[in-house]
Write a structure and sequence with these properties.
By secondary structure, this protein is mostly helical. It has eight helices and no strands.
């Protein structure tokens, strides 16, 4: 039979673990203006995810602008999350570095069309294989605002990867109002995911 002291020690240990898992803010060490700039890039990414604007940018040979916008926002936020999670009991550092490396690979593939044809699909598949376990690990290990980052990371990669394929199969390559119901979730999930990252870093 447990003594009173043993029961108290168990309670204190449980409270300590619970306290470690509740994370509502991460100190990334990044200046606020840089985080806000990354958030604005996410909003721009959401806007150019609308297919008519995306097709216009491709036609105007501005895919490099899209690549910079998409990569800058993600890299700043992910580096901030990586730095902020270092003091936590499960920092998931290797996973964050994998995400950062794959986003850089995607940036190069976007800039160089030859690379896009050869490594574009492997990078996209690899991103899904990294985002899903990383997001799931965050959901499992933490509570509070950080858990919401993990949840929306999972939703972000699933919606961004699956809906465009479904849209192409149902509507076809043409964009317009017929494609709008498919595009709204992909645009909305980027904004929400960006907001979740911003609020845990600021």
């Amino acid at each position: 039979m447990k003594t009173k002291e043993q029961k108290q020690a168990i309670i204190e240990k449980a409270e300590s673990i619970e306290g470690q898992s509740l994370v509502n803010h991460l100190d990334s060490g990044l200046p606020r203006w840089l985080i806000e700039a990354a958030f604005v890039c996410y909003l721009l990414q959401a806007a150019i995810n609308w297919s008519p604007l995306m097709h216009w940018m491709n036609g105007a040979h501005l895919s490099w602008v899209r690549a910079i916008i998409q990569t800058f926002g993600a890299l700043v936020m992910y580096y901030g999350l990586l730095q902020g999670m270092k003091p936590l009991y499960r920092p998931l550092t290797v996973w964050w570095w994998l995400v950062i490396a794959l986003n850089l690979a995607g940036f190069l593939a976007e800039l160089i069309p030859v690379l896009m044809y050869s490594v574009g699909l492997p990078v996209a598949v690899s991103l899904m294989l990294v985002y899903l376990p990383l997001g799931s690990a965050i959901i499992y290990n933490y509570r509070g605002k950080l858990r919401m980052v993990g949840l929306w990371m999972v939703l972000y990669i699933l919606i961004s990867s699956i809906i465009p394929v479904v849209s192409f199969l149902i509507v076809g390559p043409d964009s317009g109002l017929a494609n709008l119901p498919m595009e709204i979730p992909t645009i909305a999930v980027i904004v929400i995911y960006a907001w979740m990252q911003r609020r845990v870093l600021i």
